[in-house]
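Quick one, T. Sequence first:
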Amino acid sequence: MIRAGTAIHSGDAGRSLDALKMSGRYELGETNTSFTFALYPVYLRGGSYLAAKQGAEAAREFQKVLDQFGVVGNEPIGALAHLGLGRAYAIEGDPAKAKAAYQDFFARWKDAEPDVPILKQAKAEYAKLK
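Structure tokens:
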């Protein structure tokens, strides 16, 4: 996950996807009950596909996170997957689905400080959707 995150941050989506190949068979696994990294590889894979402008693939990965809410629990990727899904639909040219996903994200972040950078960025992206 660290290699994948570093590669995404460096703009190398391909290297990120390569780093996550081995995680596929374990992505629903849980190693402890107090904090779980389950589905983080899926979330990172979605981010990698976003970086590669592969919206359909990104949407599929973010939807996996949303479909496994019981595994994700209250981890941040549960809310952030809605934002990723909105971005994926925007890449795919489906503004109706993108807006709905962004709205789901905003509903989960309704009590957040308004100057949180990711929230500000999401609002700016949402405003550009037609």
